[in-house]
Design brief:
Oligomer: single chain
Shape: globular
Order of helices and strands: HHHHHEEH
Strand content: 5-15%
Helix content: 40-55%
Number of strands: 2
Radius of gyration: 17 Å
Strand order of the largest sheet: 1-2
Distance between the termini: 44 Å
Length: 132
Amino acid sequence: MAYVIPDADAYINANCIDIEDWQASDDARKTRMLNVAGSTLARAYPKYTIPNAAVYEFANVLSIMYNDLLRMQQQGVSTFGLTGVFNVNFKDGTTSMPYDDLKKKIPQTALDLIGDENGVRLSKIRFGRLIP
């Protein structure tokens, strides 16, 4: 499905708290974020109708997760600094591969929107029996 960037901009500006990384993105990056968000949600929940709002929520989360600074952390950089300007130290053990299982990164807000659209309840929390 093709997503319209002005619609995504309007939704994200009105409904999301942390929007700076989305706003700082050019149209090509926004398109990539929307496409990845949409395809990930469609693969994760193939039986359900995915509303555009859920895609927009997830795309905004992806824009935050894959901004320039956090991308360095994911690539294993532990410290970054510009002399006399700023220094950044990442916590140990917080690195991950850039695209490891995007399904785990789907926000609950997006799941709630999908659930509302389809009359079901979706949750990231899994219940089951633990076998020792």
